[in-house]
Hints:
A hairpin with a 7-residue loop joins strand 5 (257-262) and strand 6. The chain contains 10 helices and 16 strands. Helices cover 43% and strands 18% of the residues. The strands form 4 sheets. Strands 4, 5, 6, 7, 8, 9, 10, 11 and 16 form a 9-stranded antiparallel beta sheet that branches. The chain has a 3-stranded antiparallel beta sheet with strand order 1-2-3, with no helix packed on it. Strands 12-14 form a two-stranded antiparallel sheet. The protein has helices at residues 2-14, 19-55, 110-129, 135-224, 232-237, 287-292, 305-312, 347-350, 389-393, 426-429; strands at residues 75-80, 85-91, 98-100, 244-248, 257-262, 270-276, 294-295, 301-302, 317-324, 330-340, 354-361, 405-406, 414-415, 424-425, 433-434, 437-444. By secondary structure, it is an alpha+beta fold.
Amino acid sequence: MMLNDSWTVMNNSSTELDSKPASRQKRCCSFLFWSVVMLSVFAVVATATVIILYLNQFPLPFFSKRVGVLDPTPSVISTNRDSGAVVSVSRGTEGEPISIFLDPSCPDLSESFLRWEALQSSLLRRLTNHNADDWQETGLARTLGEELKVLTGHAHNLRLEADSLKTGQGVLEQRLDVLQSEQSRTLQVLQQLHSGVSDSLLSLQRETDSLRRTNQDLQTDSRGTAPRPSDCRDVLSSGVSQDGVYSVFPTHDPDGFMVYCDMTTDGGGWMVIQRREDGSVNFFRDWGAYRDGFGKTTGEHWLGLQRMYALTGAGGYELRIDMADFDNVTAFALYEDFSVGRDCVNPEEDGYPLSLAGYSGTAGDSLQKHAGMRFTTRDRDQDQSENNCASYYQGAWWYRNCHTSNLNGQYLRGGHASYADGVEWSSWTGWQYSLRFTEMKIRPKTKPNL
Ligand SMILES: [Ca+2]
């Protein structure tokens, strides 16, 4: 009652004065009411949109942790092999990194990106088709659309990047294949090179062995087929030490001839140039016989003046004469220098003169007085006697007037009545004893190194 009255009083007091202001108050309350309704609807729509986007896991720039401010920090792409990921993408310093795992087969991500783009496009269409009556809702929807376009653009770029990566991986694989092929080829070449070098070394080793064997063969051959001996010392040096007949090839008589080598007396290496031992050979011969030699090499013989010249004409030989009587007593005479026809241009014409020096021995020197004498035979008198000493003393020798030795005399077998016509060596057995054995032998003065 009191309220109504007051109200009535109030109304009564202003009915006439404020009839239009009452109508204005009524419109103002209606506007406020619909504004609240629209705000509520807009809030519901925005909340639903955000929920949809959130459920679709879209990054919402205005729903980041810093609400309402776009994150200016660019994405950071880095490799993170520790986590097993090939590439990690982190957005912002506090953002969770997104690891991208690329297995060797490189899965095709284009389809995922396409689905992503399709989803964004679908959401964009929905936002576009949303017919909002309120200007704020419309602005928000427009903002969402712009962001979605940006997101779609990013997704598209990512798909292109993924395709580019896949293409790059293909090129990389091709290059890896080429590299592997090159590596294989290089290894093959290296193996071939190594094999070639090994073959060359093996061949070189074989050649070296062959050369070594050849060298050994040559050395064996050189020992087996020694240079032709020029005298008995060479024969002895070749390792032969047995007395006997050998071929020698003196420098001045390259065709060679047979000689008897004494390999035992006084070191051996002696060439026998005269031997008397049994009287089986006639020594009373002419010039030609004494020049060319006669007799049997293994028995009584005369080597020949020409051969003696061939051997000793240039000097350098020594002479040894071994003798024995019929009582088996022996003696020898050694001359350290002996030569026949020394330095003669035509030794036969010069008479094969005797050069001799340096006696030693046990038989006495019965030859030195013949030094310088030319050789005389029964048919070629070149001695200093009125007569032919050879004829007179039944021999052939380097007679002077006539002799102190006559080793080519008659084989009278010991003591004889005739004078000096036997096999004489006067300083040992006088002029009337014909020796049982005589042997004249020569060798180079320089003894061989045995
Ligand atoms: Ca004479």
